[in-house]
Design brief:
Elements lengths: L2 E9 L6 H16 L9 E3 L17 H21 L4 E10 L2 E10 L2 E7 L11 H4 L9 E5 L2 E5 L4 E3 L2 E5 L22 E6 L7 H16 L2 E6 L1 E3 L5 E3 L2 E5 L2 E5 L8 E9 H12 L14 H4 L3 E4 L12 E2 L23 H19 L4 E5 L4 H21 L1 H7 L3 H9 L14 H11 E7 L5 H14 L2 E6 L1 H15 L5 H26 L2 E4 L4 H6 L20 H13 L12 H4 L16 H4 L3 H13 L4 H8 L8 H17 L1 H6 L27 H5 L5
Parallel strand pairs: 1-2, 2-3, 8-17, 9-10, 10-11, 19-20, 19-22, 20-21
Antiparallel strand pairs: 1-16, 3-4, 4-5, 6-7, 8-9, 11-14, 12-13, 14-15, 16-18
Helix pairs in contact: 1-2, 7-8, 8-9, 8-11, 8-12, 8-16, 9-10, 13-14, 19-21, 20-21
Length: 705
Amino acid sequence: MLNLRLATVAVNQTPLDHGGNLRRMTAALEDLSRLSEGERPDIVLFPELSLTGYGCEDAFHSEDLQRRAAANLRLLARNAGDLLPGAAVIAGLPVRRDDRIHNCAATLLSGKIRGLTPKRNLAGDGVHYEPRWFAEFRETRQYACTLDGESIPFGNLLFEHRGVRFCIEICEDSWVARRPAFLHLKRGLDLVLNPSASHFAFEKRALRERIALESSRSLGVVFALVNLMGNEAGRMIYDGSSVVGAAGELLASDAGFSFADRRTQRLTVDIEKYRTLRSRVYSYLRQGDSEGGDRDAERDNPLVQLAAPAEARERRIGFSDLARAGAAPEFKQSTRAMIAPHASRNEEFLRAVTLGLFDYLRKSQSRGFMLSLSGGADSATCAVLVQRMLAAAFYELGARAALERLGRADLCARLEAAGALTAPGANGAALLPAVRMAAESVLATIYQATENSSPTTREAAAAVATAVGARHSEAQIQSVVDAYTGLAEQALGRRLDWARDDLALQNIQARTRAPLVWLLANLEGRLLLTTSNRSEAAVGYCTMDGDTAGGLAPISGIDKAFVQTWLAWMTTSGDPWLGPIPELNLITAQAPTAELRPQDRGQTDEADLMPYRLLDRIEKLAIRDRKPPRDIFLALRGSAEAPDDASLQQYIRRFFKLWAQNQWKRERYAPAFHLDDLNLDPRTWYRFPILNGGYVEELNDLPNV
């Protein structure tokens, strides 16, 4: 019996944090070194570009970055050799060869760099721009690469370690048809390792599981993937999950979303079992039948021998979650695989955005968040997410460790003095006092009223702030609005009125709110959150330098309909840490409104625009599916969301007109989290010209009704 002990290590890295990235990887190796000799892994797999960070962007072209990455790889190899002398360690970094930069996975053993595997298939769609920075490697031959004066094997390498043969496919390599593993199928391939930097999107973990299942089934191997973890560079969130499949069976899959700086999972796999399965299939094939790559592969790409075969070991299968914050690790391994259940879309959103907020706060070295709380759905969502960020982090790490990671030793001391520090695993009533004390310091909110604001939104804002524990204040800003309109009237030599100046009079109220909330954020070193959602971004239903003011837009990647659905879920069901927030019913009972016109005009968002669910259907067809107006009309005609034909055409015209006019606004939005593959952010998904033809011809193609 030949068992392989595998460890996958998801790390929360930061681009260009060279020393910090190395320390976190070394700390994970130290965790593993404290295991007994019989439990230490044979192979340790880190994520893609783990040494430098995945999001270095144009800095990848820097010669200095290449030197630092190579130097840190040497240090990591030395550390790994000292801590885990018998383990092969796979780490990611950019490597320059012949004036081309390659996205590589380095294989380390006994203090040395034993091979460099470059990425074959670069991700260049959607949020990805890898072809801008890296060169693809499509050759089958093995070359030599000189790193710090040493010649190292470079190419689509096949390694043998303790009698197990493995190759490396980097992220996208396993998502496409022409994958590197095909080259090695005729050479006794046992294991495919996939270091990834695969950004979060709804339901994407299930897709990775399908890739693991299909890869392991079609190749007849064990397939192991580990993903980057946390909000690495600002916009992308990585779940840090690990997935292992073998011959079409899912052995292990964890949910990820850890607030720690590393998360290690261990698995023991019976390699001989899957060799037996492969031989039953491959024995029927003639010598040229299976797709195995170049027939001269063994000559052009010789085997890289790492270590001699290991002795037979007791078979134990299942994930073991190693201690993540440097505490002594525990070994808890069951006789069956541990596969975390899949979260609902509401839970996925909560876990992704709370982790994104936590990392953004600590990596930006901000003291907390500032939020203009309007009494509406969007700002309430942001407030709840900040509170649940604290709850999730306290639940996993304990209050002390979580606050230390945020750089808030002062707040930690206050909680300790009050006896409110909580241990990991506390929830519900035990967790609430610590979260409320922390929230009062971390989140500040303000309701800024004009003469058009209603008692309903004022009451709702105060109730939400109290429910989440924010430090809340109110300000009456009508006098400031009057001062601006008075100055405008002097400049124009006429009175302003709603019949003639409607839009400008709405906008000045929103813009007047921005200076005060910015000032409060600056005075206390806080990060100002802006509350725009994707539906508003699509049609520019926002005021530049008003409600768009802020340094981070946490919900601009989701549509208004989802915001409303999520708030309803939080009102009645809630999360596993603190449960529901009944006070949100003051928000969910309202019709969304900007409250910028006089109250007697009954302003609502949907009256200004169109029903939100219809807006979202039009947006998906127009932007995601690239459909012209005529096709959208035909697709929606007679559907549940669509009104009569004339109104539907009116809404479609309104959407395209507003979309075309407002690209300049989308270009100026604060950084946003990427939450699904429908993003409108031109920096991370959909690019569109600021100046354009306005869809005149396309709208003329709509049929007569």
